[in-house]
Amino acid sequence: MVALYVGLGIAMMTGISAMMQIGMNMNKIVIDSSISNNYSVELAKKDRDIMEFLNSYYGTDSDVCSSLRQHLDGSSYQPGPKFDDKGITETPSREEPFFGSCALVNSSINHRVLIKKNEEQNTFSLFTCFLEIGKYDPPICKFEQNISEEN
C-alpha cells in the first residue's frame, strides 16, 4: 500500500514539473514573438517597472499618472490623448476597458501607457503598446483603434 502512494506521489510531482516546464516554454514563445513585433526589450523593462510601481502605489487614484511620471523620470513620459471625467475624449475609442483611464506617451521609444482603476479588485489595470508612428492620429494603440472601428 505504501508503494502505491509513493508511486502516485512521484507521478504527481512529475506531472507538475512537466506542466511548469511547458508553461515556462509558452511564456518564452510569447515574449519572443512580442519582441519580434516591435515590442522591444526596453518596452518590456518599462512595463515591468510600471507594474511594480502600480502594485506598490498607495496614493490617490487621480494622481496615479503624475506619480508614475515622477517615478519614470517625468520628462520622458508626457500626458497623452485620454478620456476625461466628462466623457470628452481625444482618442476615438469609447469602450469600457479604456474609459476613464489616464494616458502617458513616451515618443522617444514610441510607448503608450493607459492606466485605469479597477474598482472591483481595488487595483489598477495597465494597457501598453508600441506606437506605430504616423499610422494613427492622435498616436494611440492599435487595440484602441480596433475597438473604435467596430462601433
Secondary structure topology:
Blueprint: H1 2-36, H2 41-56, H3 64-71, E1 78-79, E2 102-106, E3 111-118, E4 123-130, H4 142-150
Antiparallel strand pairs: 1-2, 2-3, 3-4
Structural account:
The chain has 151 residues and is an alpha+beta fold. The protein folds into 2 domains: 1-37; 39-150, no CATH class. Helices cover 45% and strands 15% of the residues. The chain is built from 4 helices and 4 strands; from the N terminus they run αααββββα. The chain has helices at 2-36, 41-56, 64-71, 142-150; strands at residues 78-79, 102-106, 111-118, 123-130. The chain has a 4-stranded antiparallel sheet, with helices on one face. A hairpin with a 4-residue loop joins β2 (102-106) and β3 (111-118). The longest helix has 35 residues, at 2-36. Mean pLDDT is 76; it is low at 86-92.
N-end to C-end Cα span:
64 Å
N to C succession of SSEs: HHHEEEEH
Global geometry: elongated
How can the largest sheet be summarized? Answer: 4 strands, antiparallel
Q: Can you tell me the residue ranges where pLDDT is under 50 for at least 5 consecutive residues?
A: 86-92
Continuous helix count: 4
Radius of gyration: 20 Å
Number of domains: 2
Strand content: 15-25%
How do the strands line up in the largest sheet?
1-2-3-4
The computed structural class is: alpha+beta
The portion of residues assigned to helices is: 40-55%
Average residue pLDDT: 76
Number of E strands: 4
